[in-house]
Amino acid sequence: MPNESCIREWISATSGWAAVIAAVPTIWYLSRQVRDADVHQKTNFAIQLRRQRILATRTSQIAYVALAGMAKEEARNDGPDIRSWDSETVQGIIHHLRDATIVTFESEIAYPVGIGAWGTALVVERAFAGIEPALHVAPDIARRYFENLAKQAEEYLSDVEQITSRP
User: Fold this and answer.
1) Percentage of residues in the chain with pLDDT exceeding 90?
2) What are the angstrom distances between the C-alpha of 35 and each of 24, 45, 152, 160, 162?
3) Coil, strand, or helix at residue 130?
4) Cα distance between residue 14 and residue 115, in whole Å
5) Would you say 59 and 153 are in contact if contact means Cβ atoms under 8 Å apart?
6) Read out DSSP for 48-104?
7) How far apart are CA 110 and CA 67, in angstroms?
8) Which of 53-67, 78-92, 151-165 has the highest mean pLDDT?
9) End-to-end Cα separation, the chain, in angstroms
């Protein structure tokens, strides 16, 4: 009888080790499946966000083009009066503010702080025509709008990059 008890204990102990040996490959296989699913999900997410990434990149580019044109006019003119600016530059700023890219960015991704693109375009347009009571601050309003717009587009792109980057 003592031999039977000893054999039972050895079999019991061996079955525990056998379970561990069988579990290790299973756990390894499941961890690979989880990692592969994560990579697949990030890839799908990146593909789905492609349009928004392009939109944010284009929005940032438009904002910097507008800011460069404004800086050139501000350097060329002494005062904040937008009426002394080059007509083509002002029309370009208004065009950028009414661009479908910016309107789409505002509606789908981020609405800039303060008034939106169309409101800013009206301020600039009215100031250039001399009918806006705050015509001396119109360039500042437009500059702050474009700076905020560029910042939001870049933050969005940074967030998307962080989310979709490979582990």
Assistant:
1) 43
2) 17, 15, 32, 20, 17
3) coil
4) 74
5) yes
6) HTHHHHHHHHHHHHHHHHHHHHHHHHHHHSSSS-GGGS-HHHHHHHHHHHT-HHHHH
7) 19
8) 53-67
9) 58
DSSP string, 103-115: HHHHHHT-PPSSS
Helix, strand and coil percent figures for the chain, each rounded to 5? 80, 0, 20
Contacting residues for 138 by C-beta, under 8 A, at least 6 apart: 82, 123, 124, 126, 127, 128, 132
The kind and range of the H/E element at 122 are helix 117-129
Q: Residue 146 is encoded by which pair of tokens?
A: 């474009």
Identity of the amino acid at 159: D
Task: Give SS3 for 161.
Answer: helix
Instruction: Give me the pLDDT at residue 155, please.
Output: 94
pLDDT of residue 2: 59
- Full-model pTM: 0.73
Exposed, middle or buried, 2 (CB in 10 Å: 0-12/13-18/19+)? exposed
Q: What is the pLDDT of residue 64?
A: 96
Which phi and psi angles does 26 have, rounded to 5°? -65, -45
